[in-house]
Amino acid sequence: MPSMNEDDAASMTEQLENRLVDSIKDHEGVSRRSVLGGLALAGGSAITGIGAAQSGNESGGNATTGHDASFGTPGKYTEKNFDPHGYLREFNTGDSTNERDAIFGKKDDLNAGVSQENGQTVREFNLIAVPQEIEIAPGVTFPSWTYNGQVPAPTLRVEEGDLIRINFTNAFSDMAHTIHPHVQNLNPAMDGVPQNGPGAIKPGETFTYEWQARPAGTHLYHCHMLPLKAHIHRGMYGTIVIDPKPEKVRENPRDYIDYHGPITDEVREMAVERAKSRNMISHADYVPDGYDDIDEMVMMNGFDTNFDADNEVYAANTRAFAYAPAKTHKYEGEWEGGKTKHPIEIKKNNLQRVHVIQTLEYDFINSFHTHSQFFDYYDAGTTLFPNRSTIDTVMMCQAQRGLFEIDYSDHQPGLYMFHGHQSEFAEQGWMSFFEVTE
Questions:
Q1: Per the domain annotation, does 150 fall within a domain?
Q2: From 378's CA, which of 26, 141, 295, 314 has a CA 20 to 30 Å away?
């Protein structure tokens, strides 16, 4: 049996989404392209609970909204310039052949190639700062500042010891930008702050950043222009995943494990095996014992739609409720609704590895909480042994990031919720589901 009825879940999404859209539709920071049907749930009204909206008639009609609640949320995302499900599992390695035009509605030259220079692998990327209207709720757009026209920015994936080369162009007409990396940068001129190196990259200018890929882990890059809170809140941030090299782990295992006991051969080999399972570049086919495969994904963010320094929309990857049940005819993962909202489908025998980067501005903390499941947590992804084990909630400040490993192999197929455990965040968009399948 599924963990919760899919149509009940879809009805809950509908109520929350309609209330959210109604509460922000007149804010100065957003534009309204279409009016959703059924906005009877006003901004201050209560959520009546899952299933309550289905009491209108025997076929599941919703007496409150006038929509067939068995088919879930009527609102569809209409902009085709961002697919949160495509973004979720997209990792760019410099030589990737990703279908970026299918995910983001346009082609670009983000992946600029991989080469060898002086015995070092160079992974090259093209990033461009450009303003972009993005859809954060069905029919509601937000004036964002972006790298490559998307929020979050492209996820870059490299291997420990690589040189990361970023050809950065500022295509804004009236605003300077930079790119600051949260890596162990060895050259202050490459730090991406206005006070160092090239300083602020002015409109029309181009600069090439070069960063050493270290340490292994899950890291952040973002604009560092002032006011910093505005540049981050508007969307200028992305993820860099640095995969560990197993041979380096074998040489110096203490650099990779939060462990103070003796380094026995068993401990060393365990660390090496874990490094192989993390490395999706040179060990992409490696799968740890007990699993069929490894599934990785990236999540973050939120938006202040009326610019009062208080967020109104929260999300995992920009679009409110994008990973929530929305419309289905039967419980077989056959989600519809324009394919704009549906749970994240995962195979129960795959190891789930989630990179979470906390980028909220204006809120002091965010969190990640799983229902009916506990996970192992690796702070910043820099350790191969977990910093915390068998927990179901992690609290994170801005710029904190971590790697979550989740195992559903002993769970029944069905819907399993995960969300930020600040209740306001969950009700305003940061509520999602895994759909566990055989």
A1: yes
A2: 314
